[in-house]
Amino acid sequence: MKILVIHGPNLNMLGTREPDVYGCQTIDDVNNKIYAAAGDFGINVEFYQSNSEGEIIDAVQQAAKSAVGGIIINPGAYTHYSYAIRDALAAVDMPVVEVHMSNIYAREDFRKVSVTAPVAKGVISGFGSESYILALHALKSILAG
């Protein structure tokens, strides 16, 4: 079973970007944590990060053409307004779990709306990098049937 983890805009700045909100872990730290957990779950995982909406859409579409069984996506700020990413996720025939390190519902009003959530199997928010591990567990259960 292969899972694609997509990190959206500004997540490459983890570790220095608002550490009071996102913590001090870098994107490499987060990916290493996901990789270790995925190994424990018997899941192969690939990582992709982009600050570009179009590149994220391309990664979603490419996943649909490959052996990827599911997607974990943190769309970053695109969560709140990218209908193009939403449509790309809706077009792929695989489960998607939306992830956020911060609790988007406890932040600014504009962050409380996700246009991508309605096409995801679920949303995990507010548990820091552990949100990704919870998403792995959820996808493993979904894909196991």
Describe this entry's structure for a reader.
- This protein is an alpha/beta fold and 145 residues long.
- It has helices at residues 19-22, 27-41, 53-65, 83-91, 130-144, and strands at 2-7, 44-49, 68-74, 96-100, 122-125.
- Strands 2-1-3-4-5 form a 5-stranded parallel beta sheet, sandwiched between helices.
- α2 packs parallel to α5 and α3 packs parallel to α4.
List the helices and strands and how they pair.
Layout: E1 2-7, H1 19-22, H2 27-41, E2 44-49, H3 53-65, E3 68-74, H4 83-91, E4 96-100, E5 122-125, H5 130-144
Parallel strand pairs: 1-2, 1-3, 3-4, 4-5
| Overall SS class | alpha/beta
Tally of separate helices: 5
* End-to-end distance: 13 Å
Major sheet attributes:
5 strands, parallel
- Tally of strands: 5
Q: Could you tell me the mean pLDDT? A: 94
Could you tell me the radius of gyration in angstroms? 14 Å
Fraction of residues in helix: 25-40%
State the order of secondary-structure elements, H for helix, E for strand: EHHEHEHEEH
Estimated share of beta-strand residues: 15-25%
| Residue windows where pLDDT falls under 50 for at least 5 positions | none
Major sheet: arrangement of strands: 2-1-3-4-5
The best one-word shape is globular
